[in-house]
Sequence to fold (147 residues):
Amino acid sequence: MNKIMLALCTLAAFLASCSSGDPQAQKPLLIVDRTDPLHNLADAPFHAVISDAEEIDKLMDRIKQLPSFPKEIVHCPMDIGVSYMLTFKNIDGRNQEAIITATGCQQVKMDGKVYWAMEPKGNGFRAYFMQVLGMTEQQFDGIMKSG
Fold:
């Protein structure tokens, strides 16, 4: 009888720790992955996980403050295809994705909207995002190896 009770208590404790009501499981999280569809990177793939809720909120706010990408024809610098896929987890009870292109027109796509991060319109967004990732401009663009 004691073994059965011990097994049931262990199972209950395990299930409680796996519950979606776990406060740790509901904390905001940002996963960043770099893509290189044209295989132009000088560096290996980049992957980062950011768990600082304040930093995540600030990044989302900075994205939403960017101007909309213009509807008219725009001439942009060379685009080498490097972009960053951002997966925001547990943001207002849902997950969100954004794509940031590192070169070319330097767009940010999120929630069906396209924003413009290219300076001077970007108001320092690129520099801020590179700081969050701990990268130089060359590392961010994929021209130079990280670390």
User: Anything to note?
Assistant: The first strand starts at residue 29 and ends at 35. The chain has four helices and six strands.
